[in-house]
Specification:
The protein starts with a helix and ends with a helix. 87% of the residues lie in helices and 0% in strands. It is an all-alpha fold.
Amino acid sequence: MSSEAHDAPGLVAGLVAVIRRDVLLAWKRPGDVLNPLFFFAMVSTLFPLAVGPSTEQLQFSGPGVVWVAALLATLLSLNTLFLSDFEDGSLDQLLLSPQPLPVLALGKAVAHWLITGLPLVLVSPLIAITFQMDSAAISVMMATLAFGTVSLSLLGSVGAALTVGLNRGTALLSLLILPLSMPVLIFGARTVALAAAGDAVSAGVYFLAAYCMLALTLAPFATAAALRISNE
């Protein structure tokens, strides 16, 4: 049996250990989970109060509002992805670990999605009701948000690694991530709008899935390289 086959269980164990550690730390700091969720709910629910009860206006603007709120809520939590590890020295342990750094970086991104992205996806049907979306549009919105938030967590891990420990890192992180997240925002909002209008949505869903797979393939290696650069 090859050495790669022997190493595979260790890689999975390292990935799971990083995810479990970050999820448990977030459980002890509920604000890390609730703050982005409250921001997403607040922005999304206040908009219908501002534009009025018109069904046509709500259905027209709803997909864009939900997606922009989800993007901003994700950005809100990205700055802390590696910050606590940097402050308590855990980041040095990750860099010195015998496990491949891209695997550990992937674990950090997956944990961030479980803490931030998944709650947004689960809450989104309640938000969609305020925009009077039907069940078909809600299903498409949940699917697109699932792919989109995974992509945002992966892309955000690269930016968070580059800006860890920097003053005003949040502003720089937003400037780095927003251009890469624009395709996700545009296709996500447009796909939900097409679903609300009863049109075909498969092309948009396939694009978001492909973008997610591309980010899943490349982002862990880019994050690992960014962490090494930031540590020098």
